[in-house]
């Protein structure tokens, strides 16, 4: 089922997600709904807070990035078919050089900005079967995971922008929170009772 995506300004996007227990009710159904919702909005990642649930859960499918001609064959292969569920994730280390990459967010439609992040991360998480993993990612994969991880920590990519950039975006962000924006997917706006 395609769920409405929570828009900028909703307090749930600022909450630190709660850990998920193995017996969480209908977890498989929730994850399936998140995949449907993400693909319906042409996203590459989606976190539970973006569908209104303050939980430590996010999904990533980096396959669309594999078509980028600027990447090496090895990078394209790594991204192609990379589809994972991250439950109770914890980034253990961020290392390497800071690099800027143009980011967007389904909760903040029509705004894209360069965000600087470390290029390598080590993360522990459980997959959809609650099998624990510790893995290291770099480049675009690290970037997508860091962006989604921020969501379960109550952080948005706009928080990482300069004060000047934030001031310049203030009006556009306010319009998003008021629902004064056209989007091709269902959204739930903070000041409205129903999704549209």
TrEMBL record:
Binding site for Fe cation: 105, 147, 151
Reactions catalysed: N-terminal N-formyl-L-methionyl-[peptide] + H2O = N-terminal L-methionyl-[peptide] + formate
GO terms (BP aspect): translation
An annotated Gene Ontology molecular function: peptide deformylase activity
Highest taxon above the source species: Bacteria
UniProt key word Secreted: no
Keywords for the protein's UniProt record, in alphabetical order: Hydrolase, Iron, Metal-binding, Protein biosynthesis
Transmembrane segments: none
EC number(s) from the headed UniProt entry: 3.5.1.88
Cofactor(s) needed by this chain: Fe(2+)
InterPro entries on file: Peptide_deformylase, Peptide_deformylase_sf
Cofactor note: Binds 1 Fe(2+) ion.
Family: Belongs to the polypeptide deformylase family.
Free-text function comment from the UniProt entry: Removes the formyl group from the N-terminal Met of newly synthesized proteins. Requires at least a dipeptide for an efficient rate of reaction. N-terminal L-methionine is a prerequisite for activity but the enzyme has broad specificity at other positions.
Protein name (record): Peptide deformylase
Organism of origin: Maribacter polysiphoniae
């Amino acid at each position: 089922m395609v769920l409405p995506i929570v828009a900028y300004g909703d307090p749930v996007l600022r909450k630190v997600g709660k850990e998920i227990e193995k017996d969480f009710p209908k977890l498989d159904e929730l994850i399936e709904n998140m995949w449907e919702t993400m693909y319906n909005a042409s996203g590459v990642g989606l976190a539970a807070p973006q569908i209104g649930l303050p939980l430590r859960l996010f999904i990533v499918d980096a396959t669309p990035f594999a078509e980028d001609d600027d990447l090496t064959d090895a990078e394209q292969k790594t991204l192609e078919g990379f589809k994972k569920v991250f439950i109770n994730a914890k980034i253990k280390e961020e290392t390497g050089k800071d690099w800027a990459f143009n980011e967007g967010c389904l909760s903040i439609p029509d705004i894209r900005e360069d965000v600087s992040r470390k290029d390598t991360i080590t993360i522990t998480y459980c997959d959809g079967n609650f099998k624990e993993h510790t893995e290291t990612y770099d480049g675009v994969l690290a970037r997508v995971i860091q962006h989604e991880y921020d969501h379960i920590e109550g952080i948005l990519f706009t928080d990482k922008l300069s004060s000047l950039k934030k001031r310049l975006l203030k009006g556009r962000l306010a319009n998003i929170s008021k629902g004064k924006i056209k989007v091709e997917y269902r959204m739930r706006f903070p000041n409205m009772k129903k999704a549209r």
